[in-house]
């Protein structure tokens, strides 16, 4: 079968690789669409510390079931599905306590193990989620939506809360979409007007370009000097984490989704003074996937606005290069793998 392989940083090729060996309890899936995640792009550019090469990237995908053993999930050959791509060990302290998304030996498809940028994959049946009539493109967007949904669930957002999302990339936009299910006073901050335009399309109540206006000044105006009840950091930069601390209300919540490599220095006394709650967020859980499929299927969330383009498998390098040089006009790019 054909597979998109990152052979080394900045090198992508289409290779012939062996068909997957289907083990007991697994289904054979024919991949339909795969989204390019920030982690995939980082693997391509050599900035993903957990990636080894060569590597088949991809963990945001939809697929058609080719063969599947008898199961109690109602899954059958021909179903269009999506899957949970985070493999956990089941034996570590986190797994035994039910925090499988925080497995100490987590292996995410496309990073620590080969991913879905290939024509066929084998997946354990318990990791496969029924599509409930969603299109293959919609189902390829459920995983990144679930990353943000899980993050938003880390704090109990109330209907009356003011929420700030810093970062209007795909994960920040999905966080906006998830938070919109809980409250209606959401601000998105970024430094690119094109991304802020997308945030407005997705229902942000206000946006602010922090290159043009002080975030602190904006916060004082928008919240009457109180600060935001919830601040969601979706960039992974020290500056944006500090921005969350500075602009959170006393007794506010900060949720960290952005994964950064730079160290952050600050006086931790501000956390005590404001009694802030800091929530890290990693991966997603089964319920996040199921709930998001239901949200999209019932029309409560429109994920297709996120798609900025669809590329054929043969043109995958063009898609990666487009994202490498993204000026803020692109959100999510999909690669079409199979019909």
Structural overview:
The chain is an alpha/beta fold and 339 residues long. The chain has two domains: 2-146 and 284-336, Medium-chain alcohol dehydrogenases, catalytic domain (Quinone Oxidoreductase, Chain A, domain 1), CATH 3.90.180.10; 155-280, NAD(P)-binding Rossmann-like Domain (Rossmann fold, 3-Layer(aba) Sandwich). The chain is 27% helix and 27% strand. The protein contains eleven helices and 17 strands. The chain has helices spanning 38-45, 93-96, 136-140, 142-153, 170-179, 193-201, 215-222, 238-247, 269-274, 286-297, 316-324, and strands spanning 2-8, 11-16, 26-35, 60-67, 80-83, 86-87, 107-108, 120-124, 128-130, 163-166, 186-190, 206-209, 228-233, 248-256, 277-280, 307-312, 332-336. Strands 3, 4, 5, 8, 9, 16 and 17 form a seven-stranded mixed beta sheet that branches. Helix 4 (142-153) crosses helix 5 (170-179) and helix 4 (142-153) packs across helix 10 (286-297). The longest helix is centred in the middle third of the chain and has 12 residues, at 142-153. It is globular and about 60 Å long. The mean pLDDT is 95.
